[in-house]
Design a protein that fits this description.
two-stranded antiparallel ribbon, 2 strands, 66% helix, 1% strand, globular, mitochondrion
Amino acid sequence: MALSERRQPLVPSFLYSPSTQTPGLDRLLLGRNPISAPSTQLNGSPAPSVFAGAPSEPPFGKIELYSPKFYTACTFGGILSCGLTHMAVTPLDLVKCNMQIDPAKYKSISSGFGVLLKEQGVRGFFRGWVPTLLGYSAQGACKFGFYEFFKKYYSDIAGPEYAAKYKTLIYLAGSASAEVIADVALCPFEAVKVRVQTQPGFARGLGDGLPKFVKSEGALGLYKGIVPLWGRQIPYTMMKFASFETIVEMLYKYAIPTPKDQCSKSLQLGISFAGGYVAGVFCAIVSHPADNLVSFLNNAKGATVGDAVKKLGLWGLFTRGLPLRIVMIGTLTGAQWGIYDAFKVFVGLPTTGGVTPAPAVAAPAELAKV
């Protein structure tokens, strides 16, 4: 069989960088497919490995890029990233939700914390932490796992040249596709969480709150807020992933004098956190109106989007609770990218982003003629 007949579409080099220094052109030229590579290059020398491994053997063995084990690792990293961070900021989320629902009572961040402390004590700050942990763990698993899948899937469809040229569109399409699935997993938990946090006495948590919610609203009521949730989370996630990838690439290009593959892992993780924090500020602004709608709809039985707009007003939709949400989402997003990339480093995978696309290379059929 001719060499050109065995070659498959190659994944653009900007999607991932190796954990050890390897020439970018060699990474692009060789391999039967985006997952495996032959043992020798065209000139007979050993081919670079497509396994992502740290200098020392990672705890789960070397993970082959784009393999089931790779996507499993990314999914588990997403669980840790989203579940733990959202649970940690439960007090901020609690105050934010109540400011959106009852601004007359919760007039500011400081007074909101004061009202909660006076009425519910310290334990009240973590009301709803169980549905928060479980819901955002499920969302994170789908968000990050499917993002990695769709990012490669759309890159394969576009081909190396167009995927590198239109990489931002790849990031946007991949993250939007992943978030559609992630929100289906999150929505029931989010509905119960908001009801528990904004209606004292409704339930203690998920265990008793879920049956009460279903009894009151019906099973389909758990998905009453799915459209506003998509409206909040899809723009948020598109901004989160596309701006992060762009910011990190710019940091390595303009602010860091050393190539990424020569930077220490601690520096790379610091850049991941910084890029994530800046991306989070943009995310909060873009998704805030829909966040207000989600809180309003899940708090009141039979409420509609029209009711929310009438009561809150257009200005209120964009501004109510926004300063607190910027602080919360900025910190949250920075921590999420830090945790996610830290887990990837732990299992021997490269951190996300920061690789400038390599120039377009000759097609495999043309290489075979050389």
